[in-house]
Specification:
Length: 304
Amino acid sequence: MISFKQLRYFEAVARTRHFGKAAEQCAVTQPALSMQIQELERTLGVQLLERSRNGIMLTEAGREIAGRANRILADTRDIVDFARRQGNVLSGPLHLGVIPSVAPYVLPALLPLVREKFPDLDLHLRETQTHHLVEELLDGGLDLLLLALPVENPEVETIKLFNDRFLLAMPKSRQVSNRIRATPELLQQDRLLLLEEGHCLRDQALSYCSLRRIDNIDTFGASNLSTIVQMVAGGLGMTLLPELSIHLECRQGDIRLMRFTDPQPRRVVGLAWRRSSPRKRHFVELGKLITQATSAQMRDSELV
């Protein structure tokens, strides 16, 4: 039988691609770690690692078993987490992942509420794109994600928190005659500025626009909405902004905002966690706090 220790050692080597770093992370000597992995290979009857002068690579079997080991270790952490959290709502460490198009608009209002209501919570934040967050969630590096739904993975459970409608943003100097609401056709008339590839906000905007032309789309390599807004204000084009961002991004008054005709484009923002996690009721409580934290920004956008 393979042991939990062997899986933990192998996962560390697979992640770091280095025996010395893996041994340091596991608080064992390098020979002891290497011996356990060799024993794991003998027990399984397959080679997991390719060792060479250039470093360590995973074999095909090693990649598959590393993925399974990650899930086993994550499930084990969930068991320990369950035992420790009995009776305590949102206490101890919580690793929260947030997408870049949500983090700067939710966290400043959320964090003071968390400190006030859950003083024993040790919150760790990670901001990156959706596909990275989901990978880290499944690997056990993150406990909870705040992102745009849906998340298409059978191992992930989600709840919806709120709808976040998109508005059309253009330079304030641009004149739009006799228009109360924007339409997708209006986006064809100027350069459309979007975040670089990999951001779900870009994909959602393109899905709504159903653009046939691609020569009027530009990213400039922008990875955050603030950069895009500055470009719009400078007359370089137009963009779609989630209403969650308007309170922060449009304070200077140099942007003209228009709501779209119905049905208005939107994204659904929610929480996601491993289906095996025992902390669902805790995550739901945090979701209520997130909804409370965003209510002010959403009320402000109603004035547009």
